[in-house]
Amino acid sequence: MKTYLKYIGFALVAISLASCKLDNYTQPNASLYGSVIDDETGELILQDLNQSQGSSIEIVEDYWVNGEQKTQARTLNFKTDGTYCEKNMFNGTYTLKATRTNFYPVEDVIEVHGDTEYILHTTPYARLLDPQIEFVDTKGMVVATCRVKSDEKIKNVRLFCSENPNVSLGINEAGDNACQVGVNGYLGEDQVITLKMDTQYMTSGKDFYFRLGALVDVNEARYNYSPAVRLHIDNSNIEPVVEEPLGISIDDCESADGWSSGVGSVSTDGDCREGMSSIAVTGSSKGVVLFQKVFSEPIDTKVTVASGILKLWIYVSDASVFPATSAGQLEITSGGTCDSQEINWTFDKLNLNTGWNELNLKLSDGANSGIDLSAVNYIRFYHAAPTGGDVTVKLDDIRIYAPEVFDECDSADGWGSGLGAVTVDAVDKRDGEGSIAVTGNSGGVVFFQKVFDEPFAAPCTLEKGHFTCYIYVSDADILAKNTAGQFEITSGGACDSEEINFTYDQLNLSTGWNAIDLPLSQAHKNGDVNLDALNYIRMYHTDTKKQDITIKLDRIAFYEGD
After folding, report:
1. Residue-wise pLDDT tens digits, 114-151
2. Residue 464 phi/psi, 5° resolution?
3. CATH code for 127-237?
4. Which of 85, 96, 210, 367 maximizes the CB count within 10 A of its CB?
5. pTM of the model
């Protein structure tokens, strides 16, 4: 650790400063001004202007009244640029203490006479090296990078935003939880921290100020800052997000090749929902077979019946000609024809409306006659419509997918903990943009928990499925390898309901990162879990040494084994 102060003295000068000029009062008859300087770089140590968040100086005056020594103290805050000024003082001897700061503490006895300058030469807790803050207009994103030099453990690095040029923790319009990287450890000087802030909540066409800050794990420490940067935010050039295709394509419907219909000739149509076209047919709905196609090459959907979903778009010009109660189906098969090795959905499950309909049909909700999902080679859409009215029907973007990742752990949204605030660690991670992290006393019991707004369909079965994730523990000896704690997943929206869980003797955690891969067949069960509707997760332990610990999670997922 660095020495707490490299003090090289102070200067007493009698000058008149425009920024600290005194009126011609008889009393008080002195002022104190100066700055705090990084003794290594010679630069000002930047501060937070907010009184409760910025560094401060306590100035204590000793004086005598009727032979009795008295003490009077006042507190002075730094300006954003690291300077300070106190006009109303008397000539005399003062004890100066700089505590609750973003630099190593300073204490000294000084003589104030007239206009007196005192320069604090010390060492900041952290230096933000090579800070870069830029606006990427095509993404609607401010991207900031820096390195951090410090002998102390870093709690977090944050990006602050405000219309006020004194932007800081105390003057921050980005929200308390916006754009933060939880570090909770020591950083190498060559380690680059990257933060990204979404600007779409800001008023487009205005200027905003941005500043990076790093907070060390020292009692009463304040943030160390980079210089503020003014950026003009204009979100008119944001490019639409192009998402990766979902799952396995059955047919993109960009061509009518191979498609036939009992209604009429199948053609392509520029009215589509994906790509450049859909396939379309117009004629009497009495044609029964609306669309069908045999695929020359079988398609491996890479899903199971339990987890797979058939996704497609269907357009009907008049849904009333297809009563939901009448005979008709959407079917896929591996038998090369209808009614052979098939999964089908009747029209009451399709629930079509006039116009375009986006369907996400669970394979498990269809009638299954032994389909081989590794060799799908036929699709048919038909209806024995009793009305016989003319109708136009279109199909687009037919694909099968199975969700895999339960949670990427790239965001702390929705996560809670009994240890403390859950943050994102964008540095120490195993997959994606970051891991979620929490630090606190292990007696907090609940390390992580989350209720999911949308149920998750695991692409696996209890018999062959596997649960995987990454778990980091700073000291595995704190967590007993027994059954007094669990990693649990439920479909009941809470703990101990429709649950599968693994105890700590199964997790067998070591200090550092652990790659967990456990068969669901070995999980303990509490009720009947629905793997197609998982909506809650919790990690806890009741038998610990009740010491401070850091725990992180990354990429929680499922897969179907052999």
Report:
1. 999 999 999 999 999 999 999 999 888 898 999 999 99
2. -120, -5
3. 2.60.40.2060
4. 210
5. 0.53
